[in-house]
C-alpha cells in the first residue's frame, strides 16, 4: 500500500507554545496508531482549553519529549522559520540488502507532517524547563494582540486535531495488522536537522528506503 | 457453517462496538458514572480488552443495553441532556417540604449521538464467503481505530467542558447533565436544529453492512449561563460533619450535588415487554427504580445520574446521612420517618435501594433538607450511638453522628427531638434502642461510655464498660433534650477518642479534634445562642436545656427533658436551619476555616 501522507494545517506558534502544541499533536497521532491494549490518559493543555489523549505509555512520552526538546533547540538556532516535524510509521522488513541498509528495511506506510511557523519573541527561552512548566514569554505585543493570537492558535490546534481524526477514519486500509503484545507501531519522529539541505536529504533518503508499495493487510 | 460463525462474530463485534461507544460517550459526559479515576485502576477487565481500549468499569447502565437493544439494526441514540434550574435557587425549606419545589428545570439536549449498524436487506446483497472470512477482523481493526478517534472526539466537543466542570469541582452547580439512551428519539425542532451542528464520522465497514456514527451537538454552550451555585458552600458545612477524606468509609456523594440515579420511566408504558419497567428500545431500568417522570413526558426513560445541585443546603445533610454506612440501608427508615433527615437520597449509583421513595429527586432532597442538620461536633465521630436509636434496625447507621446527648435522649424518650432524631418513630421502644445501642456499641466502642449506662438501663447486658468517666452522667444523658448541639461532644471528650479506634469515623474525630480546642471558645457563644434561640417546638426546653451547656461546663448537670417529639413544621425546621447556619458561621469564624476540598470521586 502506498505510504499515506497527511499534511497538517500550519500553526503559528510562539516559542513557548511549541512544547505543548507538539506534544498534543504527536500524542494524538500516536494514540490513533497505538492499536494494542491502551489505557488512555486524558491530558488538559495548560495554555489552551483543549484536552487531548495520550496512550499512557511512559516510554513513549519520554521519547516524544526528547524529540520535542531537540526540535526546540533547533528552533532556537533557526529562529523565525517555518519548520516541519514529521512522524512516520513503518514496518520492518527483514534483511533485504539495499543501497542504504543491509539489515532491515523500513517500509513507511504513513507519514504525518506537522507544519509550524515559529515566531520568535524578543526573549528566547531555552528548552530545558520541566515539561509541564510553561514559560510565558513576555513579548512586545499588546495583551489584546497576544490573546487574539492565542485564541486563533487554539482554534487552529483544534482544527488540526479534527484533521487527524478525519484522516485516521478515512484511511484505514493501509494500516498494517496489529501484532500481539505490541502497543503501537514503530514510529520515527524527524525534525529538521542542522541544515536545511540535510533535512531535504533525509527526506530523499527516506523515500528511497520506503521501497515498493505493498499490500499490508 | 463458516458464514454463520462469521456473521455471529460480526454481530458480536457490532454489539460490543455499541457498548464501547456508549461507554466512551457516557464516560465523558456523565460525571457520576465514574466516580473513581479509571487510570488508577490497573485491572484490565474483559470489557476493556474489546477494541484494546481500557475504560474501566462499565457503568451499570450498560448492562441493560444488551437487553433492550435486541436488534442490532436498531439505532442507538444517546441524548446528552443539560438540566438547568428554572428559577432562582431557593433554600426555603417550606417549599421543599411541601413537595412543590417552586422551581422548574429546563432540559436541553446538547448532544445527540447516533450509532447505527446499517445492513443491507437480506437477499439484496450477496454474502461472499471468500471475503467474509476476514471481514469481521477488518471491521474489528477499523473499529479499534475509530473508537480511538471517538474517544478523542468526545473530549473535543463543547459538552466536555461542562462535564469537566461538574466532575472536577466540588462545588455545586446550577446545572446537571443526564443522558437518555433509546432506539428512537423525537427529532429536533427546526429552531433546535438550526442551533446545532452535525459531525459524521466516516462509516466503518462492517461487511455486509456499515457502522454509522454521527453526533449533532450545540457548538455554543455559553448561552446557558452555567455556573457554580453561590449559596452555602458545602465545604464549609462539611466541617461539621466531618470530612470524607478523614473518614473514607463514610460515603459521600461524588459531589455535593449528590449522586442520585433516578430513572424516569416513560409515561407511556405501552410496549409489551417481559421486563417490568422496560420498554423496548429504550433505557428503562438499570440501577434505579423508576421515578415519576416529571419532565420528559412521552420520552423514553431518562437517567438522572447526578443530582442537581440546586438544593444546596442539602449536601451537608446528605453527607451526614451517608455518614454512617455506605450501604445506605435507609429504605425502611424513610418509610417511617417522613422527615427523613439523613436523607441523603444521594447515594452511590451502585446502591439503588435508597430510591425506595418514588419521589422526585427534588422532593427527596427537599425532604432531606427539612431536617435540620444535627451538626455533630467534628470532634466526635462516635456518633453511631446517635444514629442507632433512631432506627429500629440498628444496621441502618446512615445518620450522621449526633451528639451523644441527643442520642441518649432518644433512647430514653423515644422521641426524636430534632433533625434526624425527629425522625424517630414514636413507638420506638427502649428495647429497640437498647438493641440498637448494642449494635452500635459493636461498631463503636467509643460510644460505649455513654451507652453503657443507657444500655444497662435498657437491659442490655452487652455493654461492658461503663464510661462513667464521661462527664455527663447517664442520667443526664437520658434527660437531655433531644437535639444536641454538636458541642455536646465536648464532654464526650478526648478520653473517648482512644476508644474509637475501630470506628470508621475515628479519623474524622481526629481530624476535627484538632479544632476542638479552638472551638471551645466558640462553644460558649454557641451555647448561649442556642439557649436564647427561639424555640423550634413547643417544648423549647429541649434546646435550652440541652446539656450542651452542661457539657461545656463539664458538670453533667441534668437537664430536664421535655417531650422532645413534636411534630415539626416547616417553619420550625427553617428556624433550626437558620440557627445552625449561624452556629456554623460562628464556629468557622472562631476556629478558622477548615476547608475540606473534596476530591471528586
UniProtKB/TrEMBL annotation, chain A:
Matching InterPro entries: ATG101
GO CC, one annotated term: phagophore assembly site
Protein keywords: Autophagy
Source taxon at top rank: Eukaryota
Any one biological process term the GO annotation gives: autophagosome assembly
Molecular function per GO: protein kinase binding
Pfam families the UniProt entry points to: ATG101
Family: Belongs to the ATG101 family.
Protein name, per record: Autophagy-related protein 101
TrEMBL record, chain B:
Positions in coiled-coil regions: none
Biased segments, Basic and acidic residues type: 440-449
GO biological process: mitophagy; piecemeal microautophagy of the nucleus; protein localization to phagophore assembly site
GO cellular component: Atg1/ULK1 kinase complex; cytosol; phagophore assembly site
Superkingdom classification of source: Eukaryota
Skewed-composition ranges (Low complexity): 394-406
Boundaries of every Autophagy-related protein 13 N-terminal domain copy: 14-220
Polar residues composition bias: residue spans: 353-367, 380-393, 454-469
Listed InterPro entries: ATG13 (IPR040182), Atg13_N (IPR018731), HORMA_dom_sf (IPR036570)
Region annotation (Disordered) ranges: 335-469
Keywords: Autophagy
Official protein name in the record: Autophagy-related protein 13 N-terminal domain-containing protein
